[in-house]
Amino acid sequence: MVIREPRLVWRPGSKGSEVRRIDAATGEVFCLVEEPAKTAVMQREVQITPAQVTRERVPALEETIERRFLVTAPAVREVYVKAESKDVKVQTLVEPAREIRTKVEARTGTMQRQVEVTPERYEWVSVVCVDTPEGKHSIQAVQRALAARKLYGGPIDGVIGPKTKQALAAFQQANGLAGQGSLTIATARALGL
User: Fold this and answer.
1) For residue 188, what are the β-bridge partners?
2) How distant is the alpha carbon of residue 104 from its chain centre?
3) Is residue 100 in some structural domain?
4) Bridge partners of residue 2, in order along the sequence
5) In this structure, is residue 95 part of a structural domain?
6) Rounded mean pLDDT of the chain?
7) Domains in the chain: how many in total?
């Protein structure tokens, strides 16, 4: 059974057909190719013989059933039962419940907590461009200045690595400068550069 007739569709790529077009927006090449028809195999039931009624002999089913019959009518009999006794332990209140109060000494300790001193904010700061040859010389000068202040102990290599950032952040914090480890113009001026 045919589900879909054969059709022509545009597919991306340059192989498969001589008819091509280029998408003006993306520059992608499309080819016009023929998709074959889509078919499916269908199954159906066909009557081979018509419905009919047949008669069959079913043998009788026999079963033995047991029944109970009343032989003697119900009656009431009196039976003598001897009295039963035993010793039982009983709890007796000797002293009523009472409340005892004990003085507990106060325990004190020191707790640390963080208090916001200044609210969070964003600041625009001018930074030194480090991706140029002049920037590398500037970083070397900064490393020398930080080493002279005993804040930097790494190599004077003109690279802002973790040690340089840590030394810059320590200098900025000690001098109330913004930057958090970035080389800002204000930090360079404070270092005398």
Assistant:
1) none
2) 47
3) no
4) 39
5) no
6) 80
7) 2
Query: Among 165, 176, 170, which residue's Cα sits nearest to residue 149?
Result: 170
Tokens of 33: 């190719």
Pair of tokens at residue 60: 């009788």
Question: What is the spatial distance between Cα 167 and Cα 191, in angstroms, rounded to a whole number?
Answer: 12
65 vs 51: CA distance, rounded Å: 40
**Cα 116 from Cα 110, distance rounded (Å):** 19
Residue 11 counted as domain residue: yes
Question: Higher-confidence residue: 123 or 10?
Answer: 10
Output the six-digit token pair for 79.
């039976």
Residue 149 belongs to a domain: yes
Domain coverage including residue 15: 2-39
Average confidence (pLDDT) over 132-160: 81
Contact of 180 with 186, CB cutoff 8 Å = no
Q: Is 165 exposed, middle or buried (0-12, 13-18, 19+ CB in 10 A)?
A: middle
Structure tokens at 133: 């040859």
Residue 125 has pLDDT above 60, yes or no: no
- C-alpha to C-alpha distance for 164 and 143, rounded to whole angstroms: 7
So what's the pLDDT on residue 108? 81
Task: Write the DSSP symbol of residue 68.
Answer: -
Looking at residue 175, its pLDDT comes to 84
Note the pLDDT tens digit of each residue in 81-110: 888 888 888 888 778 888 888 888 888 878
